[in-house]
Amino acid sequence: MNQIVFDMDGVLFATEALSDRLWKEMMEEAAMPEMVTVLQQCRGRNRTDTRAFFAENYPDFPYVEMETEKRRRMLAELDKHGMPVMKGAEALLQALRAANWRVALATSTSRKATMHHLEWSGFVQYFDVIVTGDQITHGKPHPEIYLTACEKLQCCPTETYAVEDSENGVKSAHAAGMRVLMVPDQVAPTTELRQMAEAVLPSLEAVQKRLGLIM
Q: What is the pLDDT of residue 47?
């Protein structure tokens, strides 16, 4: 039995780009454009870890209030324009299902938002296991979320693929001992990340080819 674990934002859905745009708009409105770079350091972390990061390093920055407003704006955008699905995402998930792969999701996003995204896109049916950021103690880059997903899939991490787009996500999957396929979205891979990944691929179609699901 083959198995694979996906990140969600920036891998299956183009929500990272939307989130970045909204944060940039909000920081410009608040006359704090320098915080955009700081916010990018938290890409892939769950809400708890991100809040702790700001409480420790930027205690005067009203992260909780800002994040709540950003989430409100994001849901409004999604409700208006629909879920931005990454090119090749559904074809890959359909091919995995047809080939009887075991498939899991390991996302730093909350359970509520995750299920909203999956139900809206019709992707719920493709996943045997769903692990979200509020179900774990330590978020990415800690390996807990990937180890939890593999445990629920009843598979060995070293025999399981992980598909990631972010620095924290790649580090998390690598630390769990997984076979990491990086598909960059908003962040170009560094030399360090390339060394952690089994492959850096340009698209989800390339992932499908890599797994031998299409010729």
A: 84
Question: What are the 10-residue block averages of pLDDT along the chain, 215 residues in total?
Answer: 94 90 93 90 82 91 93 89 94 97 96 93 97 94 97 97 95 98 92 97 97 86
Instruction: Count the residues in the chain.
Output: 215
What distance in Å separates the CA atoms of residue 168 and residue 74, rounded to the nearest whole number?
A: 22
- Residue 91, class by beta-carbon neighbours within 10 Å (0-12 exposed, 13-18 middle, 19+ buried)? middle
Query: Scanning the structure block, which residue is given the tokens 């320098």?
Result: 34
Of the candidates 122, 177, 168, the one whose C-alpha atom is nearest the C-alpha of residue 149 is: 177
pTM of the model: 0.88
d(CA 180, CA 163): 6
* H-helix segments, 85-143: 89-98, 111-121
Collapsing DSSP to helix, strand or coil, 77 comes out as: helix
**Rounded distance between C-alpha atoms, residue 174 and residue 196, angstroms:** 6
* CA angle (59 as vertex; 135, 20 as ends), nearest 5: 60
